[in-house]
# Entry
Amino acid sequence: MGIQNPSAPARAQSRAAGNKHPNRGPHSGGLVHDNTRHTTRFTVVGNYLVQHPDLSLLAIGLGCHIQSLPKGARVDIKSLAARFPEGATRIAAALRELEAHGYLRRERHRVPGGRIVTRTISCNQPAVRRHADQPRRADKPSCVDRPAARPRKPLPAVPQPACTAPSLLQEATDLLADLRRHDARLFLSTRDTAHLAPGVAAWLERDVSPAAVGRALTADLPPEGLHRPAALLAHRLSEQLPPPPPFRGPAAPPRVRHPFQTCDGCDRAFRAPGPGRCRDCRRDAQEAA
# Structure
């Protein structure tokens, strides 16, 4: 029969709370910091996160890593599992911890084109946000007290074509409507399309192909979100307008090439619209006369 150890705890405790925390209270030894002030490439992370009493070590480390990333970085489970050796299961559990304590929020948004995407929002001070949101919800103005919407800023002017043929404007409108196939952010309203169509028609009028116009409008778009894509397109249509094509006069008529004929005088082949004599035989006949 085994001997029991009366000094062993009844069950393992995963958390040390209150004054029993190993880093609280007076002690003579332990950690000593040898710090150098950072001047570049550093991130400010609060002790609310790095010394959180309820988060696991993996969740704290993952939270610090996420707060150090730039805007737009991918923080889904697949991307994080490819970056760290902990594996998808442990990383998913750590993300749930951070979400439960308010350090992460997941919001679903509908982007132009109808597709729904999930955005992850990192919050460095969840408690401050909760306190700030409470009076905002309580003091939310009613529909009657809500201030009037700001007037919409007009779009920049676009070039105007010399010819406003309906077929030319329709071709320009179709080109603008097709831009969203190249980039979903270029989803234009009917009003914006009507404003931009004359500018596109001015390009087409200058012998620029529709494919070349599309490339000029969609090339080198900024990677971040477009606040107002119609304003960007109007700016490009005005600033990058090509010069008019060079003047070309009417083309000369093609040279007539007559069929071969056999000379009635010397049987030599020559070109002429009909049978007869060659040039030499005609000259000899004139000299003889």
